[in-house]
Design brief:
Blueprint lengths: L1 H32 L12 H27 L3 H43 L4
Length: about 120
């Protein structure tokens, strides 16, 4: 195409330049409308384009919501710290349970002693 339009532009002067510009603009418009393409399946109508645009907008909103939710989630390090704290708490509860059992046994011995003492048994 350059071999045809370039001589017209060089030799035609202002009218040649106008012809070249008109040909280029016409070709651009025809290509945008899809009239110069052989495959019409790639041409999208305005209604399809607006529908796609609205769907992309909806997906963009959903993606923003998901990104916001993900930002609020704890990190791997924070989850690990929670696991360690849970294990430490479980260990402390086990120690507390053992201490409570020992205290219970001591209290029962004292009660038995006092009951036996009140009955006159030593």
């Amino acid at each position: 195409m350059e071999k045809y339009l370039l001589p017209i532009l060089e030799e035609g002067g202002p009218i040649g330049a106008l012809v070249v510009i008109l040909v280029l603009v016409t070709g651009f418009i025809l290509r945008q409308k899809g009239w110069l393409t052989q495959d019409k399946s790639k041409v999208v109508s305005n209604s399809q384009l607006s529908e796609l645009s609205s769907r992309v907008g909806e997906i963009d909103k959903r993606l923003a919501t998901v990104e916001h939710d993900i930002e609020a989630l704890p990190t791997r390090a924070e989850i690990h710290e929670l696991q360690l704290a849970h294990e430490r708490l479980a260990g402390r509860l086990l120690v507390l349970e053992n201490t409570t059992q020992a205290t219970k046994a001591g209290v029962l011995r004292v009660e038995d002693f006092l009951i036996n003492l009140s009955k006159g048994h030593t």
